[in-house]
## 1
Amino acid sequence: MKTINIAIDGPAGAGKSTIAKMVSAELGYIYVDTGAMYRAVALYLTENNIPDEDIEKAVEKVEVSLKFVDGAQRVYLGDRDVSELIRTPEISMAASRTSAVPAVRARLFDLQQKLARENNIIMDGRDIGTVVLPNADVKIFLTASAEERANRRYKELSEKPDCPSYDEILKDIIQRDYNDMHRETAPLKQADDAVLVDTTELTLEQSAARISEIIKERV
Ligand code: DC
């Protein structure tokens, strides 16, 4: 049976994961966060102090898998649940850097395609509509201004100890956008047939409603 595949791409902090979770819960699809897979690989490389020149070899040994508990994705390195450990600013930056390595992308590509073949999914990332699922039923490119994305991240982190300043967050976002858009393999870009949704002026609820409407029109 053909499964339904929805691709959502866009830069860091555009709200992809929160919105994709809301919409997949509404439509009964599985939500797959591919960024978490890149983060898990980055955690492995960081924990094992793998130098850049050895990444290609080391990545053959990495076992990343996803489990879905009550609809929520958990990410595993071997049998260790690393879902929380991968959410630090250090791992964000490491993932942005190591995801440029073709061997890292190749390692995760098969796993992503298999999930899409077997399930009705909303998959988010940077290259889902362009590379991983070029035949997705619906493609959305979700974005917002860098300042608005930094603002949202700052609000999210401001309750926590050691919260970085707004300027640091904005600098990180701009750096990650640059890395993600300028790498040679599978750079972040809007697929020709993707619908652009700019959430700078939208609330989360408005963004989710817009995306759900786009999907319902097409599927
Ligand atoms: O979506 P995120 O911030 O969790 O992603 C972490 C990093 O992983 C991001 O900087 C770029 C990379 N990534 C990628 O290259 N391709 C994807 N499909 C998803 C994420």
## 2
Amino acid sequence: MAAKIISGNEVAKEIREELKKDVAILKEKTGVVPGLVTILVGENPASVSYVTAKQKTSKDLGFYSIQDNQPQDISEDQLLKLIDSYNHDPKIHGILVQLPLPKHIDENKILYAIDPRKDVDGFHPVNVGKLMIGEADYLPCTPAGIQQLLIRSGVETKGAEVVVIGRSNIVGKPIANILLQKQKGANATVTICHTATRDTAFHTKRADILIVAAGKAKAITADMVKEGAVVIDVGVNRIGMSGSGKALLCGDVDFEGVKEKASMITPVPGGVGPMTITMLMMNTVKAAKLAAGLK
Ligand code: GUN
């Protein structure tokens, strides 16, 4: 039987409606308007399009938002000073530095310079550590979005065999950590596969929930998936151009084959992607609430 398609567009819309109400209540109660700055260094086309979407969504939700474009040759010192100025700006609750950064800039040094209270990406070691011990203020956006997709699609994670493909700091490691916590919407048995895993298919075939962030187009095929599994595809691979000049995308999962075997599956585009931006907005609202002394 063909899988139910989990629509990230629909779930993201539902959460954004909730956030709009939160923003209005926060403003009415405290006068605080969530403030977000997105810093873009250079003109990487994918980064430009992500940052544009983040800005548009934040404006739609009624945020105070700044798009700060910096030249490709900005020095590390200049960028650190810029971050410091936003750390001290009371109107800004969330700071996002779009990655990747140019080679001459140490990415970790930049991420560590962001005040952890304004780290709405959840990449600062303080926030990574808090996630590890089940005390997170801000979950990294893509993994948080995956968890929301599972919760809001009624997927039982407690006791489930979850297999994650990929061990990046942005997706693989944090989603494994999130689903491992003894908390609602988590409490799973988690395995992480990576480039040195001897037999990836052995693991994927026993997954109740398979989360794929392999960075390789159509790496997961139907023969690697258990009947009835829930499949979350985090991959975004550009495989050409449409007639109208739009990028044609595919995920890390062979969607056409796997949808015949899975019980639920996310599409690419329209699956995890829209959730990432929405969770950034959720983190920014949370940062504004915390700054206003609310929980
Ligand atoms: N580049 C790709 N994904 C992300 C993300 O989640 N946050 C930031 N800051 N940069 C990214």
